[in-house]
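Bench notes, afternoon.
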Amino acid sequence: MEKSKIVKLDEVILANQEFQKSTMAAKLNWLRAGVLGANDGIVSTAGLVLGVAGAAADSKTILIAGVAATVAGSISMAGGEYTSVSAQRDSEIAALAKEKQELADNPEAELRELAWFYEQKGLSLELAAKVAAELTAIDPLKAHAEAELGIEVGNHVSPGQAAISSFVAFAGGSLLPLFAVSGPWTAYKIPVTVIAVIMSLAITGYVGAKIGGARSGRAIIRNVLVSILTMGITYGIGYLVGGIGL
């Protein structure tokens, strides 16, 4: 094979790899969101149940408060995620409709624009024009959506799926402090809850850092410090409020 053809093939492969990396990054963002949702469930529920425990409440009251926090937090997270993803989906659909109209109104200019995008990815002027022309001949809207908008046609994010994932992640995280504070170890419920929360957040911090390619040590320390601060403040407030009989 001629050297020039080999170079051009390498350029096409490189451009394709970049798009695959962006797609993989989107999938990793969903996984990271699940980890963060579980993280939120652990911290918020732990803070609430320890605040109630600080007020010297009995185990039944603590359990009721924890269950209420789990249900309310899970629904709130799911509703927020549904609204956010719905807005994103509507925005993508509107952008695709606009792009489709532009392709119909001025296909020549859109073809030059698509070639320019591939030039920015490192392809030569000649090869970028050829790639743009061939992709446009196959599916112009798909070609422009992927290159210009970063949208994969026909693969929009589902608001319902996002809401369910968020609900499950938050509820799953909430179960750990809820179980720890309401277990049979009544006399040790506070230290058991604190230890369980710290250990679980160290794990979620590590996993979240690995998904994002960051240093795990810093993420773990940040997670643990935030949880200790949250639990300490809420327990202290509960203790003070319970002590003055409000």
